Amino acid sequence: MSDWRYKKGLHELGNGCYAWLQPDGSWGWSNAGLIRDGDASLLVDTLFDLRLTGEMLDAMRRVTDAAPIRTLVNTHANGDHCWGNELVTGAEIVASRACAEELGQLQPEALAALVESDELGEAGAFFRKIFGAFDFRGITLTPPTRTFEGELTVQVGDREVRLIEVGPAHTRGDVLVHVPADRTVFTGDILFIGGTPIVWEGPISNWVAACDRILAMDVETIVPGHGPVTDKKGVEGVKRYLEFVSEQAQLRYEAGLSVAEAAADIALGEFASWTDRERIAVNVQTAYRGLGADARANTVELFALMARLA
Q1: Residue-wise pLDDT tens digits, 62-101
Q2: What HEC string does the chain produce?
Q3: Is residue 5 very low, low, confident or very high in pLDDT (cuts 50, 70, 90)?
């Protein structure tokens, strides 16, 4: 794989595949992708707000003026991968059925209210710190127009694109977008490169299996949901982290530690340099839930715990 520079903007990957990258890949700063063949393009994900999505679509016009976006794939239901959908007019929007069902559970105006609230203490301050750069007002949530379960093959011109459901993992309906002829895959948030993955849904074993699915592919270029373009070494790193968290959480669960105690107690070792280390709180909670604990906290509680760890 070429040595891709991690800078904001549209990066050509070769053979009509492109990545839109947003450093530093932290909370909300997600990537997207574009696949062009002949007179058609497929867009992989939109961004967190309308300004960012509009900026991306404007930059893509050098490709899409001649090959309009006819298909938009949402890899999952988190807002930083779909809240700009309304700006992609005239395209069929495709996602897994589970993604479509999850999509409306957090409305943009609700997140705006959390960011703007002065009554949430340390959680509110953390919301403002990580999400204050985004504008969630005026977004019309635009759901998929076509859903699938398992796998779906779509055509972009003469090019075959495989959509592979690997959730529940990061969210309920995570999807990989694989372009076999170009040995390229867009992973959504199955991969965070240089940043800490966050297991909202789980089980963690499903996410490990998703990493194994990518490792088994004949791919060279891998575009993560967050972070720089990578190769299979990046996948292996994410898999190691997930296995590490699962093992460490189980030890502390069996020792009787609470989620908060376990999250504070785990020494991250080789993963300590990754951004957003505080996500260990969510990951431990999800691991505990998989072990049988009634450990599902509400959003404000989780963000307050992450604020204390950050």
Answers
A1: 999 999 999 999 999 999 999 999 999 999 999 999 999 9
A2: CCCCCCCCEEEEEECCEEEEECCCCCCCCCCEEEEEECCEEEEECCCCCHHHHHHHHHHCHHHHCCCCEEEEECCCCCHHHCCCHHHCCCCEEEEEHHHHHHHHHCCHHHHHHHHHCCCCHHHHHHHHHHHCCCCCCCCCCCCCCEEECCEEEEEECCEEEEEEECCCCCCCCCEEEEEHHHCEEECHHHCECCECCCCCCCCHHHHHHHHHHHHCCCCCEEECCECCCECHHHHHHHHHHHHHHHHHHHHHHHCCCCHHHHHHHCCCHHHCCCECHHHHHHHHHHHHHHCCCCCCCCHHHHHHHHHHHC
A3: confident
Q: Give the up-direction half-sphere exposure of residue 145: CA atoms within 13 A in the CB hemisphere.
A: 12
Residue 300: C-alpha distances to residues 120, 189, 220, 228, 282 (Å): 8, 22, 40, 30, 12
Please state the pTM of the whole predicted model. 0.97
Distances (CA, A) of 62 to 18, 33, 59, 89, 156: 12, 14, 7, 17, 17
Amino acid identity, position 284: V
292 closest CA partner among 260, 253, 251:
253
For the stretch 153-192, pLDDT in tens is 999 999 999 999 999 999 999 999 999 999 999 999 999 9
Kindly calculate the radius of gyration of the chain based on its CA atoms and give it in whole angstroms.
19
212 Cβ contact partners less than 8 Å away, ≥ 6 residues apart:
239
Query: Following CA atoms 105, 107, 112, 115 in sequence, which dihedral angle do they give, to the nearest 10 degrees?
Result: 10
**Contacting residues for 288 by C-beta, under 8 A, at least 6 apart:** 249, 253, 259, 262, 295
What does the alpha-carbon distance between residue 131 and residue 92 come to, in Å, rounded to a whole number?
29
